[in-house]
Known about the structure:
nine-stranded parallel beta sheet, binds alpha-D-galactopyranose, 680 residues, 30% helix, alpha/beta
Amino acid sequence: MARRSSERPTTRRAPSAWPTTGLSYGGDYNPEQWAPEVWREDVRLMREAGVNIVTLGVFSWGLLEPRQGEYDWGWFDEVIGLLHDSGIAIDLATPTAAPPSWLLHEHPEILPVDADGVREQPGGRLGWCASSPVFREHALRITTALAERYGDHPAVRLWHVSNELGGGNARCYCEVTAARFREWLRAEYGTVEAVNAAWGTAFWGHTFTDLDHIEPPRREQHKVNPGLFLDFERFSSDELLGHYLAEAAVLRAHSEAPVTTNFMVGSGRHVVDYSDWARHVDVVANDHYTIVNDPVREQDLAFAADRMRGLTADRTPWLLMEHSTGAPSWQQRNRAKAPGEILRNALAHVARGSDGAMFFQWRASTAGAEQFHSAMLPHAGTESRVWREIVQLGDALRRLRGVAGSPVEPAKVALLVDEESAWALQQGLKPHRALRYTRETRLWHRVFWQRQVLVDVLPVDADLDGYDLVVLPTLFVVSDAQAARIEAFVRDGGTALVTYLSGVVDGTGRVRGGGYPGAFRDLLGITTEEFRPLQEGETVRLSDGGEVTDWTEDTNLHGAEAVVAYADGNSAGRAAVARHAVGEGAAWYVAAQLPLGSAERIADRLIDELGLPRAVEASSGIEAVRRRTPDGDVLFLVNHSDADETVAVSGQSLLDDASFDGKAVVPAGGVVVLREGAAE
Ligand code: GLA
């Protein structure tokens, strides 16, 4: 069986100094779009806003190396000098997300090829195939030149490898990639017989007689073998990671500054295996954009932030590398933020462990593909609400500098997220193709988020010591070793909540026989003899009054007790939710796609039975998280509702002079941050 890439050694360097003193504040800075007089105004306004770091150079390759091997550093030296003189740190990007036009012109073969065999055209970005040796050579040349020139520069405090790797070039199906895929398979499996056995190629007569006959899963409409599909996803993630590692090695050879790349963790597609990638960045960094038609967009933000924290080594701070001050420009109807939302969003990330808040981008572009994307300095200039809120946020982050470096209080709930399960579930002839992996991960995070119970969103192989509850939403791909770890966690007194479509296939994508949920059958004391996906518009009632859509199962109890049963339909009388006492702990199985109300009832019972700590007792509109500083706990209260909320707390506000003696009023849409203790 293919080994998980997470079994390979980490290249993460021991945490070195954080790039800024205090919390990091700034954004992408693209000075090449502006005349030098504007750079001077930029730096002046950055200081006015309290900006202490910018990401520089993301799109600068074509100007830094206008012809192969010919460099023009003059303008870049000047910008770097201006920033340095103003005390602004630089997160220096290798410009490889934006290959120059001469490179694309001379080597069109570096452009990615889609699953239908169509080669991309120049004109976008990340227009390169991660397997291309030609691109790699050019990318490492500019990276080396940049690192040699600025590796020791005192303003360069962080390296930013390329930009959103995989955002545009996540999969390539060209011949070069195909050859690399075969090499990957050879390294993982050794022989063609092993591949055949793992993928079950006897079906449909797909047995290979030579590894060289294997092709990537081209043409999406073709019904691909699930094992082949899953391995190609793993390979593609590894291939992009290989590119990151090659650039990172060059940077590390020339500089002591930490190295990162910006992840894209939000409600979208799982592009690469971040559980694995995180082990190779010195600072875990994310780009997060709220999505306009997400009914609980603040919870998506919290979920992404909790995932970032879960990807760090020992829950140390991470960095929000990009978010927006208002409307992005890549959605259908781009939504401007409401007054106060900039502060609310930024501080929610900080509350959850980001040691800063950064944006795309500093100054709004007037030309180019993103000319209507919001920025810290909007087209309207400084006479604008956005600018006033940006100055206000800079002030808030300066006042909150004491939280820098502090951990978020330990969570008692872990929720496991697994890219491999997301990939496998989305592909092929699965029982219900409209199911979305993120629906279940978000649901189970949401019910705790609304109750101010902190959840660490963790990779599936993470250490579970210290947690009371572990939630496994649709953890479809599970190895024997992973299942054994969950079982040991429960036997030792933990509680596991496993939802439908978990444990169904092994690491090769092969169904585990003997009844679902395969890997967790014994632990859960229940089996499912048949899946019963519901049709569009079809609902099934539950004994708790809820109504199920989309997914039900014909379950049989083997030691578990039913908590909720199906009240009608073909599964009537069978358990929809069951609990099994095991060792010192308990294992719950949720066999249905529950409505929010039913999931909330389960969350309430678990909070009660396990004594899961709530940061404060407040209504569901209040988001509450603590960071543990050497000077005491700092409590963040974010009010997402349109009514003022009163919370029972005492302490000193860190954002203004207020003090709270037993209660704090968090204004509608507002934020209160206080150091807890007796009011002064
Ligand atoms: C991403 C990119 C940025 C920019 C923003 C726009 O996060 O990294 O360069 O394109 O999207 O929202």
